[in-house]
Records
---
Amino acid sequence: MKTILSGVQATGKMHIGNYLGAMKPWVDWQNQGRAFFFIPDLHTLNVRPDAETLRGNIYDTVAWLLAVGIDPRKSTIFVQSRVPAHAELCWILQNYVTMGELNRMTQYKDKSSKRGADGQVVALYTYPVLMAADILLYSADIVPVGEDQKQHVELTRDIATRMNNIYGDCFVVPEPALPQVGARVMSLTTPTIKMSKSDANQNGNIMLADEPKVITKKIKRAVTDSGSTIELSDDKPAIANLLQVYAGFSDMSVPEVANKYAGVGYGTFKTELAELVVEQISQLQMDYEVIRQDKKRLDDVIEEGSQRAAGIAQKKLNGIKQKIGLT
Ligand code: AQP
């Protein structure tokens, strides 16, 4: 049986890129193997969130996972900081990765360029090493992620292979799995950059928590390309992105959506896209509101999942410590 693992940051603020690129596909993945979905709250510390906000965001994020359909009877849902083995393995792995490799990580370049000197914290730089520990502790075969995280999974593969070569069988070498639709949802205002929580222009994002009228307004104001009718083409990146969003929410393929709307005006297409997105997000929001009120249920999910994860992770860490001579 394959092991599947992935995570979503503890910001509580998910956009439709996180949803279509990661969380929605996880709902299918949980039926295809032994699945782990976690909240990487140690990663989230690199933006120095206020303590009370972080505490609440962890609950928000778990509630969103349940609302989109992650089922704790099928998947282990856990919080990273409750499993001490992540930080310990991260330290060990830092000895098997070079600064040259970390310097090539495009996410570090993107995120650090958006922050001032004070925001360029060491944990942002070493983020991919902690992510490698997250994956390798559970012997994950498959890591379903959006395209922006693919490079980090590839680095994880390099680290695992390196340690396997030095010490013999240490780790399973994981494969990234990108969804067919939604692997890279782009900003609605600047379709050349990915939709991102940290984008200064929040009109480019559709958040899962946005009200229907806000979603509709953002879609209606989304930039379009030259021309006036729907056509799938490499030189129409804005339309391609909107078609991708429609495909993601309708479970159609992008060419199917393009065929359905071929020759239709941008205005009509945007109206129907907004209706589709509003309908689906409204349902998710209703489920989320009910789940978020039930703190006892959320505590139980976190506690049970984190205990199960900690048992597996500690066993793996003990084996690695033995192999490398620490015990
Ligand atoms: N625009 C996107 N399109 C498709 N998938 C995306 N993901 C993120 N942005 C897009 C995927 O969502 C999962 C969880 O991501 P994360 O919580 O680790 O956040 P991130 O990758 O750092 O990107 P964000 O959410 O936009 O935050 P910032 O602004 O901090 O970069 C991952 O599988 C990710 O690939």
---
Amino acid sequence: MKFVFATNNQHKLNEVREIVGEWAEIVSLSDIDCHDDIPETSDTLEGNALQKARYIKEHYGWDCFADDTGLEVEALNNAPGVYSARYAGPGHDSEANMRKLLAEMEGKENRKARFRTVIALLVDGKEYIFEGIVQGTIIREKRGNGGFGYDPIFQPDGFTETFAEMGEEAKNRVSHRARAVRRLIDFLSTYVPSV
Ligand code: IMP
């Protein structure tokens, strides 16, 4: 099987390809020659994931899946959530986002947070949504050099390392994206295409 994964983020592609394994071929946006700035204007993860998947179907004709992820911090009323990528403002990077989050968390005792991934799948003219969640804690100072985004300040429950310290393989076993992708694969592995 072959699917377009509506991303050009190499980290995400590697993670998803690793989880999917031999089971299906996953091609990226650049593999289908899509270099568009796909709109993500919804105020929910579900809305953004659907918007991206629909765009690919409409403009390129491919069945595909798209994801959107947010870091939801309990003490911040689930911020940054859908705005995780641009928390410190447009054009800012992960370092600035983490600095802002740590500043917002100063003096807060409740450091519970979760990563939530939503995947929207478009296949045979139908839309499906899959969700993956990992619970954890926002630590006080960055640790580790692996991963991306907020990984250095997120410690998943049941571990003493941050996502950035765990290495890709260990992260892939428990991550929000891995959980959502596994649900996607479970669904597709029993899926009977309509004719
Ligand atoms: P996206 O919708 O998957 O691009 O995620 C939005 C933002 O959430 C990214 O820009 C990252 O800052 C953050 N993010 C998403 N997934 C992860 C992850 O696995 N680790 C750390 N940060 C992540």
